[in-house]
């Protein structure tokens, strides 16, 4: 692959492909970055990526268009990465190997702003009243691990000053570990925040894979070497065709209050988080500002889709013909549906435990037979109702850590006459919704008709 020419299949080229498939809607009406643009995204995501050409920001029309809902359906993602294969297959292949990167000319150097007022230069959205400030939601944070490889991951960011951003960094994840190692050595953590990255980079950054260079993973997803460019003030490379790049540092011990924030599972709490001092902002010519609606379809899919091949790899060690889909009921994060060609009783439990070991945020795993389409949640729910006996087929695993986004373990109790909110230990549930008797008892019989002829009749009507 190293002999191939490096490319950077940009966000703009992805939008052009999506436009050709009728997946883009242009909004010419002036709409506010406070609530109005997020509302329209919420109504249209899953069907369209929306480009807002006249965002109203701080009482005036902003010159940078806002784009949202780009990756809000599996079809949109496949179109964006220009793949005829299912996204899950593309990610699975990419995880088995790595691509290459090559230096190129940055598209994001057309305009440079030193120590920018971030929320003034960019049309940052405010989505819900619970947010204390506007939030950057599509920022991919690049940082260098002490071992030399480049980490890339999504992190929500709220302004904590003119050129200062409070960033939610989940404990135990790659960026948290990098910051901790740098702080232990008394060193700052250099970061580059790219907004409007190529689709392959968006998927690589969303992958929870640790210990791997995410730029190389993006190249593997893209299927060709990824063109990158160096930053000006930090020792990092980012995709050359990024729309907007912010460069900055997290000084040792630098923290600001961040939150509350509406996440995929509800309102996340406020907490002290690492703070980035932005030294430089670079923008492409006529840049696009990308936003992801918190708790929306795009948010859920970007979290859940990259997890599916990781779960599938572990599950297929115990069921060769398994299929996996993160479910909409679990916000594509805490519940998985898995279909198998069952070979023996007890296999569904083994398969479910393998899934939990692969993705520890799982709260619920539903195992069904291979006649159930795991991407059709109505079929999955029907299998649970019809094929699972609650007394025998629902298994609860108590006092096992799950997702930090799952708040179902919080409850009020009366202590000494006072109503006190306590946090109980988390738990997980496995549902064996496979047939334990003849499948004929549950399968709808085929009607003995000439389907082709009848479909022609229907079309004629």
Unreliable segments of 5+ consecutive residues: none
Distance, first to last CA? 53 Å
Number of helices: 14
Strand content: 25-35%
Q: Calculate Rg over CA atoms.
A: 23 Å
CATH topology of the largest domain: Pnp Oxidase, Chain A
Would you report the number of β strands?
A: 28
Q: Percent helix among the residues?
A: 25-40%
- Morphology call: globular
CATH superfamily of the largest domain: Electron Transport, Fmn-binding Protein, Chain A
Please give the oligomerization state of what you see.
Answer: single chain
Topology overview:
Layout: H1 11-20, E1 24-27, E2 31-32, H2 36-44, E3 49-52, E4 55-57, E5 60-61, E6 66-68, H3 74-80, H4 87-96, E7 101-103, E8 111-114, H5 118-121, E9 139-144, E10 150-154, E11 157-159, E12 164-167, H6 174-184, E13 189-195, H7 199-206, H8 214-222, E14 226-230, E15 237-239, E16 244-250, E17 255-258, E18 261-263, E19 266-268, E20 271-283, E21 289-291, H9 297-304, H10 308-315, E22 323-326, E23 335-340, H11 347-358, E24 364-369, H12 377-387, H13 390-393, E25 394-398, E26 410-415, E27 418-423, E28 427-433, H14 451-460
Helix pairs in contact: 4-8, 4-10, 7-8, 10-11
Structural key phrases:
461 residues, alpha+beta, Pnp Oxidase, Chain A, UbiD C-terminal domain-like, 2 domains, nine-stranded antiparallel sheet, five-stranded mixed sheet, 28 strands
Question: How would you describe this protein?
Answer:
The structure is a single chain. By secondary structure, the chain is of the alpha+beta class. The chain folds into 2 domains: 11-302, Pnp Oxidase, Chain A; 316-441, 3-Layer(aba) Sandwich (UbiD C-terminal domain-like), CATH 3.40.1670. The protein has 14 helices and 28 strands. Strands 8, 9, 10, 11, 12, 13, 16, 17 and 20 form a 9-stranded antiparallel β-sheet that branches. Strands 22-23-24-28-25 form a 5-stranded mixed β-sheet, sandwiched between helices. It has a 4-stranded mixed β-sheet with strand order 1-3-6-21. The mean pLDDT is 93.
């Amino acid at each position: 692959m190293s002999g191939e020419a490096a490319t950077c299949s940009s966000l703009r080229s992805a939008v052009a492909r999506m436009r050709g498939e009728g997946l883009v809607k242009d909004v010419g009406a002036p709409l506010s970055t406070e609530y109005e643009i997020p509302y329209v995204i919420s109504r249209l995501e899953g069907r369209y990526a929306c480009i807002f050409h006249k965002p109203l920001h701080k009482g005036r029309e902003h010159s940078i268009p806002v784009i949202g809902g780009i990756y809000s359906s599996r079809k949109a993602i496949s179109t964006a990465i220009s793949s005829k294969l299912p996204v899950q297959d593309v990610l699975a292949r990419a995880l088995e190997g790595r691509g290459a990167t090559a230096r190129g000319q940055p598209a994001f150097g057309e305009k440079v702003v030193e120590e920018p007022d971030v929320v003034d230069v960019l049309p940052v959205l405010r989505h819900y009243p619970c947010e204390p400030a506007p939030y950057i939601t599509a920022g991919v944070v690049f940082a260098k691990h002490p071992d030399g490889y480049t980490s890339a991951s999504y992190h929500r960011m709220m302004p904590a000053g003119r050129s200062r951003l409070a960033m939610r960094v989940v404990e135990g994840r790659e960026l948290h570990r990098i910051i901790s190692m740098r702080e232990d050595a008394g060193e700052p953590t250099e970061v580059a925040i790219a907004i409007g990255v190529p689709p392959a980079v968006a998927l690589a950054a969303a992958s929870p894979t640790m210990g791997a260079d995410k730029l190389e993973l993006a190249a593997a997803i893209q299927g060709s070497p990824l063109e990158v460019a160096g930053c000006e003030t930090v020792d990092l490379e980012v995709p050359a065709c990024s729309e907007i790049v912010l460069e900055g540092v997290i000084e040792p011990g630098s923290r600001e209050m961040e939150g509350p924030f509406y996440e995929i599972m509800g309102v996340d709490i406020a907490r002290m988080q690492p703070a980035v001092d932005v030294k430089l902002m670079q923008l492409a010519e006529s840049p696009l500002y990308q936003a992801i609606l918190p708790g929306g379809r795009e948010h859920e899919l970007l979290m859940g889709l990259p997890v599916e091949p990781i779960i599938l790899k572990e599950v297929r060690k115990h069921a060769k013909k398994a299929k996996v889909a993160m479910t909409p009921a679990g916000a594509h994060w805490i519940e998985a549906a898995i279909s198998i060609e069952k070979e023996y009783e007890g296999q569904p439990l083994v398969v479910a435990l393998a899934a939990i070991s692969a993705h520890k945020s799982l709260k619920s795993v539903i195992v069904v037979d291979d006649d159930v389409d795991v991407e059709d949640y109505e079929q999955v729910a029907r299998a649970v109702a019809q094929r699972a006996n609650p007394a025998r087929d629902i298994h609860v695993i108590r006092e096992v850590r799950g997702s930090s986004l799952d708040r179902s373990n919080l409850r009020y109790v009366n202590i000494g006459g006072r109503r006190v909110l306590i946090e109980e230990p988390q738990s997980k549930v496995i549902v064996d919704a496979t047939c334990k008797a003849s499948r004929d008892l549950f399968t709808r019989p085929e009607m003995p008709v000439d389907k082709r002829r009848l479909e022609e009749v229907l079309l004629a009507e």
